[in-house]
Q: What sequence folds into this?
C-alpha cells in the first residue's frame, strides 16, 4: 500500500476520534447550560429581596455609609476579572480579558492605580505569562460557582474598600464579567460595584410605594449588614451569569470544531480516494509497459 | 382574616413561600412575632429557629443563620444566608 494512502488514513482516523470528543463536549456543555441558567434563576429571589431592602433603606434615609461614599479623587481601583478555568470555549476568556485591558488603560489614563483580582485560571495564566502583578486569584469551579466563593470574594473586596487609601485600600471597585444575553450572544461588560450607587426605583403606584420601616436594631447597623450582602449577591449573580456564558461559548466552540472536523474528514477522504486511484493507475501503467517490453523483445 | 404572604429565601435558592397566619423569628435583639397588620419592619436575623404557621397544615420550621427580614403590607420576606428546613 502506498505511503500516501496510509498518511491520509491516519489523518482521517485521528480527526474522527477528535470529532467524537468535540461532540461529547458540546453535549455536556448543552446539558449544563440549562442547569446554570436555572441556578441563576434560583438565586434571583434573594437578589431581588436584597435590592428591595437596600432601596427601602436608601429611600428614607440619607445614607452615610463607607460603602456609598465617593472619593473626591480616586487613586486606586480594584478590578475583578471573571474568566473561565478551562479553555476550549472559543474567545470567551479572551473577550473578557480584552475588555478588562481597555478598562485598565482607561483608569490609568485618569491616574488611577489598578489592582487586579482574578477569577479563573485563564486570567491567572494571562497575568502570569506577562509577569504582571495581581492581588488575589480564585480558581476552580468557574462553571459551577458556589455561594461560599462569592461570599469570600465579596468579603475580601469590601474589606479592601473600607481600608483607608493611604494604607492600600481602594476607592473604586469594578467587575468585568460576561453577560448572558441569549444562547447565541454573550457580551463582556464592566460594572462598577463600589462606591454603591443605590438607585431607588420610582414607585409606580401606592401599593408599590415603599413604607416607612422600623429598623432593628438601628438603621446604621442594618445597613452595615445589608450592603456587604448586597455586594455579595451582585458578585454571585455575575458569577452565575458568567458560568452560563462560559458554557454557551464552549458549546458553540465545540459545535464549530465538530463541523470543521467533518469538513476535514470529507477532504481527506477525497484525497485518499484520489491517491488510491492514482496508485492503481500507476500499477496498471507499469504492468502494461512491462508486458509491452516483453512482447517486443 | 388577613394573611401574611411569606417568602423565605436563601442566597442560592428559594426555601419556602406561601400564605401564613404568623411568623416567628429570632433577630439579633430577641424573638419577634409577626401577625397580619404588623407595622413595617426591617430587622437583622440572628442565629436561631424560624417558625412559620401556615394557613393550613403544620408549622414549618427552619434553621436560619444570618440575614435579615422585612415586613410590609403583610408581606414578609425572610432573606437568610443559610436556611435549612427542619420539618416536625
A:
Amino acid at each position: 500500500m502506498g505511503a500516501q494512502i496510509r498518511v491520509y488514513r491516519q489523518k482521517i482516523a485521528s480527526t474522527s476520534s477528535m470529532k467524537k470528543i468535540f461532540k461529547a463536549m458540546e453535549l455536556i456543555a448543552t446539558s449544563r447550560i440549562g442547569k446554570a441558567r436555572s441556578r441563576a434563576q434560583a438565586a434571583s429571589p434573594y437578589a431581588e429581596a436584597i435590592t428591595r431592602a437596600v432601596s427601602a433603606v436608601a429611600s428614607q434615609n440619607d445614607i452615610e455609609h463607607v460603602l456609598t461614599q465617593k472619593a473626591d479623587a480616586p487613586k486606586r481601583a480594584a478590578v475583578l476579572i471573571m474568566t473561565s478555568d478551562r479553555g476550549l470555549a472559543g474567545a470567551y476568556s479572551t473577550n473578557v480579558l480584552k475588555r478588562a485591558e481597555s478598562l485598565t488603560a482607561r483608569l490609568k489614563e485618569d491616574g488611577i492605580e489598578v489592582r487586579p483580582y482574578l477569577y479563573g485560571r485563564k486570567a491567572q495564566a494571562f497575568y502570569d505569562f506577562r509577569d504582571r502583578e495581581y492581588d488575589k486569584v480564585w480558581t476552580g469551579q468557574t462553571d459551577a460557582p458556589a455561594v461560599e466563593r462569592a461570599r469570600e470574594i465579596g468579603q475580601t473586596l469590601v474589606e479592601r474598600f473600607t481600608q483607608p487609601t493611604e494604607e492600600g485600600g481602594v476607592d473604586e471597585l469594578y467587575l468585568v464579567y460576561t453577560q448572558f444575553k441569549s444562547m447565541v450572544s454573550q457580551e463582556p461588560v464592566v460594572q462598577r460595584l463600589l462606591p454603591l450607587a443605590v438607585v431607588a426605583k420610582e414607585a409606580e403606584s401606592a401599593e408599590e410605594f415603599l413604607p416607612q420601616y422600623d429598623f432593628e436594631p438601628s438603621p446604621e447597623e442594618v445597613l452595615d449588614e445589608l450592603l456587604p450582602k448586597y455586594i455579595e449577591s451582585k458578585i454571585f449573580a455575575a458569577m452565575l451569569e458568567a458560568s452560563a456564558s462560559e458554557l454557551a461559548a464552549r458549546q458553540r466552540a465545540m459545535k464549530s470544531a465538530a463541523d470543521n472536523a467533518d469538513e476535514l474528514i470529507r477532504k481527506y477522504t477525497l484525497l485518499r480516494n484520489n491517491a488510491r486511484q492514482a496508485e492503481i493507475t500507476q500499477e496498471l501503467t507499469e504492468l502494461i509497459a512491462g508486458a509491452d517490453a516483453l512482447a517486443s523483445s | 382574616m388577613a394573611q401574611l404572604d411569606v417568602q423565605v429565601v436563601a442566597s442560592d435558592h428559594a426555601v419556602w413561600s406561601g400564605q401564613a397566619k404568623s411568623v416567628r423569628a429570632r433577630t439579633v435583639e430577641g424573638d419577634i412575632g409577626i401577625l397580619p397588620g404588623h407595622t413595617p419592619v426591617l430587622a437583622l436575623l440572628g442565629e436561631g429557629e424560624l417558625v412559620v404557621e401556615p394557613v393550613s397544615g403544620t408549622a414549618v420550621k427552619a434553621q436560619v443563620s444570618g440575614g435579615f427580614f422585612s415586613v410590609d403590607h403583610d408581606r414578609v420576606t425572610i432573606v437568610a444566608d443559610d436556611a435549612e428546613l427542619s420539618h416536625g
